[in-house]
User: Which sequence fits this backbone?
């Protein structure tokens, strides 16, 4: 019978508490970023960014009515977006505004700064987790064609604007070696 010994554990008294807490807070930030990806994709798919970009400051009820969604969901989404500085909130008017920079980054699909596709890639990758875990166990691999649709659509939406922005007038990608501009 073969026995293995567990790796030696560091004495908890030797753990640097400041480094431990730095790591814990970094991990909490990453979980927050993961949850935020879902909110960005939700807002993109429900028109919650395009609507205030088109109509200006909006109350939750107006946003819900114009997007055909439920007011409590619109309100909670707007509050979460305000907490994350995606929208601004005017308490006197009870209205939320999408700042001009966020309008570009969240609604202009032809802008190289357009971000929803990037969040869509992240969310699709999270959805693929159970398949990737199984592939890691079996060694079977996981094909591009097997990924969640959000990975494919997100890649196209995120990379297309930058690709088009860097094409030459002839349609070929620009290269500093070939550029005449």
Assistant:
């Amino acid at each position: 019978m073969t026995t293995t010994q567990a790796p030696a554990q560091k004495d908890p008294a030797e753990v640097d508490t400041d480094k431990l807490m730095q790591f814990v807070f970094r991990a909490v930030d990453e979980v927050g970023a993961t949850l935020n990806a879902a909110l960005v994709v939700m807002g993109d798919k429900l028109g919650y960014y395009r609507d205030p970009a088109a109509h200006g400051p909006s109350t939750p009820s107006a946003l819900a009515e114009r997007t055909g969604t439920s007011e409590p969901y619109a309100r909670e989404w707007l509050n979460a977006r305000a907490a994350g500085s995606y929208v601004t909130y005017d308490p006197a008017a009870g209205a939320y505004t999408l700042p001009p920079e966020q309008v570009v980054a969240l609604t202009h699909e032809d802008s190289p700064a357009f971000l929803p596709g990037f969040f869509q890639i992240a969310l699709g990758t999270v959805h693929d987790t159970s398949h990737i875990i199984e592939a890691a166990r079996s060694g079977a691999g996981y094909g591009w064609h097997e990924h969640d649709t959000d990975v494919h659509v997100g890649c196209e939406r995120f990379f297309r604007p930058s690709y088009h922005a860097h094409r030459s007038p002839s349609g070929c990608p620009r290269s500093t070696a070939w550029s005449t501009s």
The chain has eight helices and two strands. Residues 72 and 179 are 52 Å apart (CA to CA). Strands lie at 88-90, 95-97. The chain has two domains: 18-99, 108-175.
